[in-house]
Amino acid sequence: MARRRATEGEAGDLPRYFVWVRGLEGPEPQKWMTMDFGVDGWKRAQVLAYLELPQEERHLSLSMLARRYPPPRVEAS
């Protein structure tokens, strides 16, 4: 019987998107399972940037992803 790697079954359950959202003190990183913008797109205005993560990066922590993919420049309003 073939052995299955431990991460094989878990990979599908990991967040798929790395998202920068508008926070109270500037851009904040988040990981989302789907690009669901909520009812009537209410989340869309909060999203500054997003990236579909490659399979091998989905397990990385937010801090590692934030260093790898820095926040977009946001103009002060």
From TrEMBL:
Organism expressing this protein natively: Bradyrhizobium iriomotense
Protein name from the UniProt record: Uncharacterized protein
